Amino acid sequence: MKHPASREFFAYWDEKRGLNPAPDRSELEPGPVRELLGDIFVLSYDPAAGYPFRVAGTRVCALLGKDLKGEEFSGLFQPASRIEIEDILDAVIADKLSAVVGVTARSSDERPIPLELLLLPFNTRAHMPISLTGLMVPFVEGCHALTDLTLTSWRYMGHPPQRFAPRILRKLTLARGLMVYEGLV
Length: 185
What we know:
Elements: H1 4-17, E1 40-44, E2 53-56, H2 58-64, H3 79-95, E3 98-106, E4 112-121, E5 131-138, E6 147-157, E7 170-175, E8 178-182
C-alpha cells in the first residue's frame, strides 16, 4: 500500500478482525476512522446487479462526479478492466482476502490520474447481505469527476498467521533429545 489513508484503514480493519479472516460489519465503527470516512465505501453483492454501492463517502462521490448509491461498481471501469475487477471482488468475498488495486482514471482535461483502491471483506453471516468495504484515494490533489477507470496492478494480501493456543500442543518425549509436538501440521 502506497497511500497513507490505505495503510491507516487497513490497520484499523486488521485490528478489528483479530484472528479471523475478516471482521463482522458491525465491528467497524466510524469514530476511529473519522478522517477517512469521505474516502470509504461499502459494496453489497447482488447476483442480478453485481456489486452496487450501498454507501459511498463524499470524497469518493466527488472524485467520480456523481452520487454512487446503487451504482454498479464495475460499471465505473473501462470495458477491458470490468471482468478483472469483478474477478478481484469475487476473490475478496469468497476467499476473505484483502486486495490493493492500482487504478488510472481520466480527468476532465484528459490527464491520467493515479488512484489506489483498497478492498476489504466482511465476515459472511447467515441472513445478512454479502458485502465488502473499501477505500479509493487519488495520488493527486484537487481532482474530481474522473472517468474511464482502468486497472494497472493488483495484489492480494493473505490471512494473518495463525496462532496456536498452548492447550492444542501436546509434548511427547519419544527419545532423549527428540521432541514431537502433536497438533501442528
